[in-house]
């Protein structure tokens, strides 16, 4: 009866060790984790970019078409502000823009400034435009293409 039991257990009853140890590392879970991390970084990387809400055309590309009657706001070297060709006081900027755009707050405002105007002064005028409700602001520059 003992021999039959030993044969039924696959020879283990006789004290023999028929199983061979496997000394290889299973890399499949490691590869799965790496692929999941790769997918997560591929999805998260575009979301990490910062976007400023100003349309700035690059100097090497064709300029976008302008509307028939663009509204220009100009900051002069003496920090005076002009809408179109008329120099105005800063506190009347909102009312002057409303009359120039016929009350359309979604119309694009073209902002141009002299080279001598500091970045802080330009941002002050941009804040005035934003507070007035004009969120579409395009910065105007010279065409640098040769």
Automatic annotation (TrEMBL):
Pfam family, one: ExbD
GO molecular function, one term: transmembrane transporter activity
InterPro entries in alphabetical order: ExbD (IPR003400), TonB_ExbD_1 (IPR014170)
Localization annotation: Cell inner membrane; Cell membrane
Topological relation to the membrane, as annotated: Single-pass type II membrane protein
GO CC field: plasma membrane
Gene Ontology BP, a term: protein transport
Keywords in alphabetical order: Cell inner membrane, Cell membrane, Membrane, Protein transport, Transmembrane, Transmembrane helix, Transport
Transmembrane found in the keyword field: yes
Family to which this protein belongs: Belongs to the ExbD/TolR family.
UniProt subunit comment: The accessory proteins ExbB and ExbD seem to form a complex with TonB.
Biological function: Involved in the TonB-dependent energy-dependent transport of various receptor-bound substrates.
Record-given protein name: Biopolymer transport protein ExbD
Species the sequence originates in: Bradyrhizobium lablabi
Upper classification of the organism: Bacteria, Pseudomonadati, Pseudomonadota, Alphaproteobacteria, Hyphomicrobiales
